[in-house]
């Protein structure tokens, strides 16, 4: 099979650059923007050799997994652009639910998905998607790239959070089928986001699918650990943690651990 945009994405005028193999689809998207190509476009591959996640952690996609990045050139402030990551989470979670349901109708494999703050998707409690949002000023505006890496056939064994693939869960789909669903879902949630004006609606939808809401949580940020209850996310996308003293602590970044791991101090 070859990669193809979904019908909604094609109608919306998105471009598509597909690679047999790529170092990093995010890097390819940013390079395109630097060259002056500001068309909204997807950059995809089923084998990524030099991808990266937050804090420059490697994110390698062996052949059969999906590495995808969408480029949007916007006239918004970087702080507003940062909230686009929540729309990306909703888009891939929606696509995963769609292909999982279709697979279940064919052969029975199905999974339950949830969004983990700030930029992961969990399947039955294990990491199946990692996302990385990057932005850079270019001639046409702010080039924003949402990178979305999904474990379709294999999951990396050496990451801090236990990971899983669709194949592990018995969901038999291809990276190409998942991408088609993702590109269409992106059109929907990018439209709702509406250059940040619709983040209130995105926030509500995200919270409906959030992992760990109302549960004990520990966030490691540098050498500090903040513990409490995951209360909500605010209008800027920060996690709000209610501490034992009843104070709401805003979290802008960090490694999040829920449940029993949280009680052990996020080790």
Please, could you describe this protein's structure?
With 267 residues, the protein is of the alpha+beta class. It folds into two domains: 7-208, BirA Bifunctional Protein, domain 2 (2-Layer Sandwich), CATH 3.30.930.10; 216-263, SH3 type barrels (Roll). It has helices at residues 7-11, 25-34, 78-81, 84-107, 175-193, 199-208, 259-263, and strands at 15-19, 41-45, 66-74, 113-116, 120-123, 126-138, 141-150, 216-221, 224-233, 239-242, 248-251, 255-258. The longest helix has 24 residues, at 84-107.
Fold blueprint:
Blueprint: H1 7-11, E1 15-19, H2 25-34, E2 41-45, E3 66-74, H3 78-81, H4 84-107, E4 113-116, E5 120-123, E6 126-138, E7 141-150, H5 175-193, H6 199-208, E8 216-221, E9 224-233, E10 239-242, E11 248-251, E12 255-258, H7 259-263
Parallel strand pairs: 1-2
Antiparallel strand pairs: 2-3, 3-7, 4-5, 5-6, 6-7, 8-9, 8-12, 9-10, 10-11
Helix pairs in contact: 4-5, 4-6
From the N-terminal CA to the C-terminal CA, the straight-line distance is: 42 Å
CATH-assigned homologous superfamily of the largest domain: Bira Bifunctional Protein, Domain 2
Q: What's the shape?
A: globular
Number of separate structural domains: 2
Main β-sheet description: 7 strands, mixed
Radius of gyration: 18 Å
In DSSP terms (H or I, runs of 4 or more residues), the helix count works out at 7
Helix content: 25-40%
Number of strands: 12
Strands of the widest sheet, in order across it, are 1-2-3-7-6-5-4
Mean pLDDT: 90
Helix and strand string, N-terminal first? HEHEEHHEEEEHHEEEEEH
- Extract low-pLDDT stretches: 261-267
- CATH class of the largest domain, anyone? Alpha Beta
Topology-level CATH name of the largest domain: BirA Bifunctional Protein, domain 2
Beta fraction of the residues? 25-35%
Question: By helix and strand content, what is the structural category?
Answer: alpha+beta
């Amino acid at each position: 099979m070859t990669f193809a945009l979904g019908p909604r994405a094609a109608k919306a005028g998105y471009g598509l650059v597909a690679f047999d193999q790529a170092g990093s689809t995010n890097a390819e998207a940013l390079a395109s923007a630097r060259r002056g190509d500001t068309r909204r476009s997807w950059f995809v591959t089923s084998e990524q050799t030099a991808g990266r996640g937050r804090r420059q952690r490697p994110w390698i996609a062996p052949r059969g997994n999906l590495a995808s990045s969408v480029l949007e050139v916007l006239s918004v402030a970087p702080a507003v652009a940062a909230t686009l990551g929540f729309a990306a989470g909703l888009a891939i979670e929606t696509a995963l639910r769609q292909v999982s349901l279709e697979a279940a109708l064919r052969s029975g494999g199905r999974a339950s998905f949830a969004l983990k703050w700030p930029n992961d998707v969990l399947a039955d409690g294990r990491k199946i998607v990692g996302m990385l949002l990057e932005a850079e000023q270019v001639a046409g505006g702010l080039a924003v790239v949402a990178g979305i890496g999904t474990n379709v056939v294999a999951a990396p064994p050496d990451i801090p959070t236990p990971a899983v693939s669709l194949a592990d869960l018995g969901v038999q789909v291809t990276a190409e089928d998942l991408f088609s669903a993702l590109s269409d879902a992106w059109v929907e949630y990018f439209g709702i986001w509406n250059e940040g004006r619709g983040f209130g609606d995105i926030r509500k939808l995200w919270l409906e699918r959030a992992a760990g809401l109302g549960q004990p949580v520990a966030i490691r940020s540098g050498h500090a650990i903040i513990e409490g209850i995951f209360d909500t996310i605010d209008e800027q996308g920060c996690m709000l943690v209610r501490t034992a003293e009843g104070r709401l602590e805003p979290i802008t970044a960090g490694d999040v651990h829920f449940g029993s791991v949280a009680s052990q101090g996020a080790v």
